[in-house]
Amino acid sequence: MTIHPVDEHGEIRALAARVATEIYAPMAEDLDVNRRPIPLAERKRLGDLGFLGIAHPERFGGSGSPLSEALAVIEEFGKVCRPAAFQIFEANTGPAQVINHLGTEEQRERWLPDIIGGDRTMAVAISEPDAGSAATDMRTSAKPIDGGYLLNGTKRWISNGGEADQYLVYARLSDAPGAKGIGALVVDREMPGVGFGPPERLMGFRGIPSADVIFDNVQVPKENVVVPAGDFGRLFGVFSIERLGNSTMSLAIGQAALDRTIKYVEEREQFGKPLIEFQSVQVILADMVLQVEAARLLLQRAAATAGTGLPDPLQVSLAKCTANEMAKRVSDLAMQLHGGNGYTEEYGIERLHRDAHGWAIAGGTPTMQRIRIVSELLGRRFDQRR
Ligand SMILES: Cc1cc2nc3c(=O)[nH]c(=O)nc-3n(C[C@H](O)[C@H](O)[C@H](O)COP(=O)(O)OP(=O)(O)OC[C@H]3O[C@@H](n4cnc5c(N)ncnc54)[C@H](O)[C@@H]3O)c2cc1C
């Protein structure tokens, strides 16, 4: 019995599910326990299979497919190995999409083929110690110098920080206050003056390195400026794609928690019968299905507004808020129905729950999504500083 009679991406989803289950799922626990990313050879394999360029143009080695196809693949990997899914997420929905949508043709040619092939990775560096939800309070600055910019500042919570080869850094490129002074440039990890803090010890996200990225008088050539000061709105327009990737990771967590719980309550017996025979267990399971399906439909609707372009920000915030909160609740209910086994590392349920919390904070918290929902719906801007 399937709840999804029509899946327009059925073929690639099936391929992704097979590769994810056979090759990447067996390494997931080790990556989590030892807090390390997937090996380079496995990232390249994702590139060779075409999974890193699904939503990028064919002329750079991608497939030129709609975003929803990339999301289907991210979901299948996200169910069983989030460190591998992260690579697909980052390449298809992360900073590479800023290059794709806002970069020059020369910049696309310079950076996209390597990302799509799995040879190099690009992380996004927006948050700072004192600028999280209030991203426009960022202080990292790029001052004009001969031939380029001098970059100084510290970025925090950077996923793939210390591991990625390149960073799309949001920084103040002019003295204009607030969002008006912010633009974005690409920094190579080899550039003199680029440093990293110690690896963060996060609750979840353990196969996805995280660290501060520190810029100390880094000379960045002007050819690396992707978005000049004043185009912050366009930058965040493209960030909606990343939020859909994020929502998909949450959906994957919720779906995996649900799938595993169905199997478990059919097998596990107490009081002489399988747990599923108890009506209160059926009710909890139904609640899990309701929440997963609601998130899936909102996500599908948001992704449909994107096609091969940009999604509608209102639809994205509805999807992200719902999916993030669903993943936390559903993985919690899964842990409850697994009893003591849910609390062990062996069953992987606690890992789903730990990761669910991370995806809900990354990319803007559910609270901030709620503010955006009302703002978009009413066509009004609510200044959080006054
Ligand atoms: C796992 C993980 C991965 C991440 N990856 C990246 C990355 O790759 N790149 C990057 O740049 N950043 C990344 N981040 C940072 C992330 O974007 C920020 O953590 C997030 O935006 C929240 O900022 P903050 O942590 O400073 O919390 P704060 O902004 O200090 O918020 C703390 C709490 O206050 C609430 N709050 C804040 N402002 C308001 C308001 N106006 N009204 C009501 N409530 C409010 C928030 O909702 C939250 O509950 C990551 C974070 C995590 C946890």
From TrEMBL:
<keyword id="KW-0560">Oxidoreductase</keyword>
<dbReference type="InterPro" id="IPR046373">
    <property type="entry name" value="Acyl-CoA_Oxase/DH_mid-dom_sf"/>
</dbReference>
<dbReference type="Pfam" id="PF02771">
    <property type="entry name" value="Acyl-CoA_dh_N"/>
</dbReference>
<keyword id="KW-0274">FAD</keyword>
<feature type="domain" description="Acyl-CoA dehydrogenase/oxidase N-terminal">
    <location>
        <begin position="7"/>
        <end position="118"/>
    </location>
</feature>
<dbReference type="InterPro" id="IPR036250">
    <property type="entry name" value="AcylCo_DH-like_C"/>
</dbReference>
<feature type="domain" description="Acyl-CoA dehydrogenase/oxidase C-terminal">
    <location>
        <begin position="238"/>
        <end position="376"/>
    </location>
</feature>
<dbReference type="InterPro" id="IPR037069">
    <property type="entry name" value="AcylCoA_DH/ox_N_sf"/>
</dbReference>
<dbReference type="InterPro" id="IPR006091">
    <property type="entry name" value="Acyl-CoA_Oxase/DH_mid-dom"/>
</dbReference>
<protein>
    <submittedName>
        <fullName>Acyl-CoA dehydrogenase family protein</fullName>
    </submittedName>
</protein>
<dbReference type="Pfam" id="PF00441">
    <property type="entry name" value="Acyl-CoA_dh_1"/>
</dbReference>
<feature type="domain" description="Acyl-CoA oxidase/dehydrogenase middle">
    <location>
        <begin position="123"/>
        <end position="218"/>
    </location>
</feature>
<dbReference type="InterPro" id="IPR009100">
    <property type="entry name" value="AcylCoA_DH/oxidase_NM_dom_sf"/>
</dbReference>
<dbReference type="InterPro" id="IPR013786">
    <property type="entry name" value="AcylCoA_DH/ox_N"/>
</dbReference>
<comment type="similarity">
    <text>Belongs to the acyl-CoA dehydrogenase family.</text>
</comment>
<dbReference type="InterPro" id="IPR009075">
    <property type="entry name" value="AcylCo_DH/oxidase_C"/>
</dbReference>
<dbReference type="InterPro" id="IPR006089">
    <property type="entry name" value="Acyl-CoA_DH_CS"/>
</dbReference>
<dbReference type="Pfam" id="PF02770">
    <property type="entry name" value="Acyl-CoA_dh_M"/>
</dbReference>
<keyword id="KW-0285">Flavoprotein</keyword>
